[in-house]
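Please decode residue identities from the backbone states below.
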């Protein structure tokens, strides 16, 4: 992973410098499994880098601003535009065992202020890092991810209909280890409600507070 770390450091340092030069107020941070130390190799390593824009950019096309900067750093031939609820970018370095996804997000203070689901990513990273503190539980998560990947149920995309990486992290944390997680999943008949932080009195209260 040394070459991955070197590339990421170089990219994030250059991105910060270019944004700063143009007085565009952002934070650049590495997210996803790489930041949470739960990454497994699935053919290629995939790394998420988030460009977090301050509230003054609300309503502006932050995808376009991001594209302008990363094209200056990387060069046109290596970048793909991925269309989504907010466009983001895939960078594939030559002859490397990884690719990077650069995701523009808005900086928010509370999850309810999110304009887009990706704006919540910052909170996900901090939440997991605070809870998955030991090497043992990190190993359990990596084992669960490898198992789900091998069984073609790793990924929340509609064509996979599986577990997102974040969902696996949360569930392994909740069930304490990989084996308990797998056993619990086999027992679900209809649906299972997991209230990780015990914010509700019972499952009925969860149901009436959730939207469809």
């Amino acid at each position: 992973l040394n070459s991955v770390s070197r590339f990421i450091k170089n990219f994030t340092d250059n991105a910060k410098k270019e944004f700063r030069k143009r007085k565009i107020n952002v934070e650049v941070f590495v997210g996803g499994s790489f930041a949470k130390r739960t990454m497994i190799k699935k053919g290629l390593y995939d790394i998420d880098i988030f460009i977090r824009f301050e509230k003054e950019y609300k309503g502006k096309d932050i995808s376009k601003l991001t594209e302008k900067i990363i094209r200056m750093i990387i060069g046109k031939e290596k970048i793909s535009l991925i269309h989504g609820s907010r466009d983001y970018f895939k960078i594939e370095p030559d002859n490397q065992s990884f690719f990077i996804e650069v995701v523009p997000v808005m900086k928010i203070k509370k999850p309810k202020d999110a304009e887009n689901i990706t704006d919540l990513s910052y909170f996900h990273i901090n939440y997991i890092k605070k809870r998955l503190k030991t090497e043992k539980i990190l190993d359990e998560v990596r084992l669960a991810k490898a198992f789900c990947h091998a069984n073609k149920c790793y990924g929340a995309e509609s064509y996979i209909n599986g577990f997102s990486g974040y969902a696996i992290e949360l569930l392994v944390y909740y069930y304490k280890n990989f084996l308990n997680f797998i056993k619990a999943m086999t027992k679900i008949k209809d649906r299972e409600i997991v209230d990780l932080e015990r914010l509700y009195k019972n499952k009925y209260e969860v149901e009436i507070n959730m939207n469809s």
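Observation: Strands lie at 26-31, 45-53, 79-82, 88-91, 98-106.
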